[in-house]
Write a structure and sequence with these properties.
four-stranded parallel beta sheet; 16 helices; binds FE3-S4 cluster
Length: 412
């Protein structure tokens, strides 16, 4: 692999152990994937932040790297933590777990993530880290990667946990995969016959297409979505997150909507074609046959202000019978508080939590065994990572369930 003189100097003894290790990881990954050179990146997003997932060994690794002098060379943000870093007691977290989770965030702060004041979220693009079309970046969280590539037209592979930290320290990633023009063409054409309406419908569509795509780049044709729809970004956020969960899809195009599909025909020659004419199987494939849920979770990926407003509109004046938790980035929560949406939700008995992701939280230890959510990705990871039962339902059904008035099926 070609390295500039400066890049070579970061591999030398006197570059220090932190920089040298970062460069070794970046170069090793580049070699594995056939990169001819490295690319300077404009931003990094790091995953592997939940103490439940990384444990004591992961925390020691981070602390050691930080103590060796690891510092982010480019703007870098952090994925969600397991808990709200300020309101974890209200979520029921154990103080010992909270202390360890705080230590993880502190190690990243020491590395200069978010200028030393990390704001954990999987939607950095909602709080100012919004790459421009064509920007090379190195992001790690699968839904954020999908959004950045597809909706913003930036370029990133899905970085692994240590790989993203290394990219932040080196300010580089390998020139391979989705950084290259040739790999951004769609190989799967999706004819959409069953039109999704709600955000959760887009999630159901994504669950189905992801399962069929299996790492391919899908191209959606016939989707009745335009940028005039006030929730168009939220719908594509849900679509991409679901495809990332069920099929590791990191890039997709929507005819006439996503930037690369507007600029050029992004279909490869002779693509495979599939047709989606029913969204119901998308809901069913991520729903356990449970009789009850004991938590409703909204905000996977982290909710936008508009999504929180929609929940507030539906629960205003009501009395919820089940816990209803919304997760979002802290600046979005602050805006929801300022607009009065958080107060409406809390008056009904719900809560708006910042920083947290329930899929990477010790959900059982918090007392929940079955969770209803309007997110296919949320349901997927609740089942496969948090190891609880999940029910993927439209938002209206989730809220009706929380109110104790859901009667569409006898299953839940
Ligand atoms: Fe974000 Fe967690 Fe969902 S990281 S995309 S809220 S599974």
């Amino acid at each position: 692999m070609y390295l500039t003189e400066e890049e070579q100097s970061w591999l030398a003894e006197d570059a220090g152990p932190a920089t040298r290790r970062a460069m070794e990881i970046v170069v090793a990954l580049g070699n594995i994937y056939g990169a001819q050179h490295l690319i300077p990146v404009k931003s990094v997003q790091i995953s592997g932040v939940s103490y439940r997932n990384i444990g004591a060994a992961g925390l020691d690794f981070l602390r050691r790297w930080a103590d060796e002098g690891a510092r982010a060379r480019v703007p870098t943000t952090l994925n969600p933590t397991a808990m709200d870093m300020q309101s974890w007691q209200e979520q029921g977290f154990d103080p010992d777990f909270a202390e360890k989770q705080q230590a993880v965030v502190d190690a990243f702060a020491q590395m200069g993530v978010s200028a030393g004041d990390p704001t954990p979220t999987c939607t950095p693009y909602l709080i100012g880290n919004r790459p421009r079309p064509g920007d090379p970046i190195a992001w790690a969280e699968s839904s954020a990667v999908s959004f950045a590539n597809s909706v913003l037209g930036a370029r990133t592979n899905r970085e692994g946990g240590p790989g993203a930290i290394a990219a932040a320290i080196a300010g580089r990633t390998g020139a391979y995969g989705l950084h290259l023009d040739a790999n951004r063409y769609a190989t799967l054409r999706v004819e959409v016959k069953a039109q999704p309406r709600s955000i959760s419908d887009y999630s159901a569509l994504g669950a189905l297409v992801g399962q069929a795509a299996r790492r391919a780049v899908p191209y959606f044709a016939g989707l009745s979505l335009s940028r005039a729809d006030v929730l168009w970004e939220e719908k594509l956020k849900a679509l991409g997150a679901a495809m990332a969960a069920t099929g590791a899809v990191a890039l997709y195009h929507v005819e006439g909507v996503t930037p690369e599909a507007i600029a050029a025909p992004m279909l490869a020659p002779n693509p495979t074609t599939i047709t989606v004419d029913d969204l119901a199987p998308g809901y069913a494939m991520l729903s356990d046959d449970v009789d009850a849920a004991d938590l409703v979770w909204i905000g996977c990926p982290h909710a936008s202000l508009a999504e929180i407003e929609r929940v507030a509109d539906r629960v205003r004046g009501a009395r919820l019978r089940l816990p209803l938790w919304i997760t979002c980035a802290r600046p979005v929560k602050d805006a929801a508080v300022a607009q009065g949406f958080a107060a409406d939700i809390e008056a009904a008995g719900g809560r708006v939590f910042a920083d947290a992701c329930m899929a990477i939280a010790p959900v059982r230890d918090l007392g929940f065994a079955a969770v209803a959510t309007p997110s296919a990705k949320g349901a997927y990871y609740l089942r496969n990572l948090a190891r609880v039962q999940a029910k993927f339902m439209p938002l209206e059904d989730c809220i009706a369930l929380a109110m104790g008035i859901f009667s569409k099926t006898s299953k839940i």
